[in-house]
Design goal:
The chain starts with 15 loop residues before the first strand and ends with a strand. It has about 400 residues and is mainly beta. The chain is built from three helices and 27 strands. It is globular, with a radius of gyration of 25 Å. The protein has a 25-stranded mixed β-sheet that branches. It has a two-stranded antiparallel ribbon with strand order 21-22. The chain has two domains: about 270 residues, no CATH class; about 90 residues, Elongation Factor Tu (Ef-tu), domain 3. A hairpin with a 4-residue loop joins strand 13 and strand 14.
Amino acid sequence: MASVNNGQAAVETTDVLLSYGVETNWGQKPAGNLKMLRITGESLTGQKQRNRPSEITRVRQVAKSVTQQKSAQGGFNFALSFDTFNDIFAALLGSTWTAPLAIDGVGGDITAVAAGNKLTSTTANKFQAVQVGQWIRLMGFSANGGANNGFARVSAKTSATDITLAGKVLVNETPTGTAAKIRGSMLRNDNEMQSIYFQKQTGTVGGLIYPGALITGASLQGGVGNNFTGSFNVLAKDQVQSDTMANATDAPTGGFHDAVANFGGCWLDDTPMNAALQNVSLELSREGAAMDYAMGSAGAAGGRWGQLQSGGQLAFLFKDYDLYKGRFDTEQQGRLAWATADDAGNAYIVEQLGATLMNPQIQAGGPNQAVVASYTVEGNPSQDAINRTIAIHRLPIS
């Protein structure tokens, strides 16, 4: 049976497809297919700034208005899924993901050493690509019920065959054959200006294009009763209508990140938090980001990249004042990291490198309720040689 003609009064939101490409030249469509995004809503829109001379006339009417500037802005919301937004996070942080680690044991050449909490290898340059500060995923270990498996941060690197780990206590073990595996990829904020070419297809009637887009902010949050969800803020050069849409490849199809069953834990300076977490959130913004204009064209002449700022919130069931005295009172700065995974186990670790816990709210909201402590997370540059504010770590299950 064929579909009825002219049955829809409007294009439905289920027919709106948002895709993107990373630009090589600002404001121009990149080569090749765009990539589809998974969204729960969007608010991208264009606008024109117009003004008119304040002319005095005998007919008592205002002068004709003329366009001075064109731009576009808005954003989109999402439920977090693995590998869908890697390029968008990279554009926001102004950086590039490190090459994915694909380190496998060969003939049992990887050993976990309890003394010093190290991984060593008998193969030259085995850990050459591993970076200090990077969170990695260990797999294929079996001693003590797989105690060595899971997430750990590389706190030091003596050589390409000797790395020291934190955030996990290792036990002595040398997996046989190719069992041991190390995976991971890292994104830290840097000073690369990156722009995105967005395409919003509205059914079969064409769509709208947003070239030269800067990612000016993001949020990511999860808690009891919710998946991990978030949003990205976008500032673009222009909004252009087109009846012809570029081809786009499908988005990854993995499951969403469950904030309860697949929450991977939270660490303060590599130590697991001794608290029952209720909610975590990350807020990122590029302060001062804007479009710049010049005479001769209403379109932007270029973009201003701004400065990255990090914040967020941490809420947990209140039991004692350890964090209040040890972090808030002393204004101690350190690494705050938390992990989230999809139902297959593919994970991200979000790490604020110079976090300070501020402005605690420890309140009794009503009778017969648990007291919840909520802290504002103030993001600062780290006080070490890395000197960065935020890192996101990609940790696949295979």
